[in-house]
Design goal:
The chain has 17 helices and 13 strands. α4 packs antiparallel against α5. The radius of gyration is 26 Å and the shape is elongated. It starts with 5 loop residues before the first helix and ends with a helix.
Length: 465
Amino acid sequence: MQENIRLPELVMVVLLIIPAIQPYIRGLRAQTGLVWFPLLALGIGVGLFPAYGFRVECIPLLLCTVFLNIRHGPTLFAYLGWWDWDDTPPSQSFTLVLLGFLIITTAFALYFAPRTDTRLSVQGVQTRAIQDETRNVRLFLRLYGPQEPQAASSQRPLMLLVPPVFGSVGMVDQVCGKLRDHGFTVLSFSRQGFDFPAFGADNKRYNPPMQEQLRIFQALTQGNTAPAANGWGRALEDGRTEDIRFLLSYIRQDLRTDFPEAAVDLNTLFLAGYDAGGSALALLGASATFRAANPGVHGIIVVESPLWSVYQFDDPLSQSKAVSWGSIAPPQVPILFMTSDRVTDPQKRNRWYGPILQILQTNAPVILAAVNGAGPLDYSDCPAKYPLYSACVPGTKPIPWKYTTFIEGTAAIMTNFASLILENAPRDTPNIPAGLSRHKGLGGTLHFETGGAWNLPDFGYILSP
């Protein structure tokens, strides 16, 4: 939650500054109760993490608080009569250095504090836990439906949004809400024991085992360079592939039963996925069998996904880097690849996006879109909820959007792509619903590339300002 994390951080600073300057201010010297302030500040600092989640930007401030408590410890022990301590105040220069570190760590924590509420949305969201008996796994569903009664009576396209493994639905919750506002009914999920974390129906967090957490991190950071990490990435793709197959079957058979008030047209389905989920969708979308089994899928959106399964290594037992990519079948449905602006950097383009660029060369209806300044984590809630993570992996160009603008911009690009597909569907295609809210004022610069078989008109007009 946000509920303003900056307030307890500022209280901590006040509790630490007053004892530090006490020896130099005559009116404070007689206030013996101030000896407890650093300990209170430490208690608040430790309490930030269970109250607000793991906030990396708060760690330097907490370490500074720990150091100040260690420095202040003898004074507290002397006050309690546990230690005979000559309480000679430190030099003013030493105090100024300590205060300088405190101010720097506080400014760091305040600057990278969340810009929006980090709690999962509740209004307009229905939740349900379901069991895949075949795999013996539990999935927690989140359905984002229309909040207005008049909108609930209309049939809306369904977006199945596969969240990133790291962060799960917490990283796309507000993107899902914006997609709902643009005219979709959105179904997202997390899987217990797989997603880090999975969010239960009561929003309780379920973390996978520590070993699995490390494998997720290795796959995301080294999956395109180290064979072992690539193997973990392939395992994540396989897991997401099974999730997607199961959920598509669930949508056809049980969605209306479990969510009877859902305003959804099951014949107009779009699929979107992040990291391993996006890779799984790109590979499934190239399968003629998958296409025949899911005729209601009109388009796929792949967000910053590495396609680990395509990488080939000279020697699987060594740590040699990938030198090639395997053959990639052309997609059977239109695909939008959303990537960071690193795709426009000649030095990073092939290294990070080689498989996607290879798909662009196939005879397939494919668009690649990149917002100038967007980093790998920016097409999500991350820039607003976890600004430090986003800042650690920035784009290569100046950012045209504010942190919170990425949520709206991401949903707008996805919606515009879906609108493009539906508006240009064959006239004899039955049951195409209307009502997606096309966005024409995205702002910023969008970089586009298209595949050789792209034949739908005016994609630049529809997706760009």
